């Protein structure tokens, strides 16, 4: 159910974008999430290193009979990458202006300062 709501919200935001006015709360939430994920990643990394011993990293993953620790490590790594992508996306969205600038056939948001058909490429 949650995935369906996320997909719906994502499509709705692409079809009807709104101007991001103050991204500070987004940066705070992403920063906190990054801290929590980093702590979980560090704990999983230390445990994985303890279990693998002198065996090389990827070889230890291949020969392991218990995938729990490296699965958590890889999942936390993917989560950290996702948070970095989200942070960069917000940063670029904030610095580059409206999401649809320069695309033809898009109805620009008239409430954005300096936004008109000539800046949208229409």
Could you tell me the number of beta strands?
0
Average of pLDDT: 79
SS content category: mainly alpha
Cα-to-Cα separation, first versus last residue = 39 Å
Radius of gyration: 21 Å
Q: What is the subunit arrangement here?
A: single chain
Major sheet attributes? none
Q: Hey, roughly how much beta strand do the residues contain?
A: under 5%
Global shape: elongated
- Which residues sit in consecutive blocks of at least 5 with pLDDT less than 50? 101-106, 114-122
Helix content bin: 55-70%
Number of helices: 5
Order of helices and strands: HHHHH
In words, what does this structure look like?
The protein has 122 residues and is mainly α. The chain has a domain at 24-94. It is 68% helix and 0% strand. It has five helices and no strands. Helix 2 (24-52) packs antiparallel against helix 4. The longest helix has 29 residues, at 24-52. The radius of gyration is 21 Å and the shape is elongated. It starts with a helix and ends with a helix. Mean pLDDT is 79; it is low at 101-106 and 114-122.
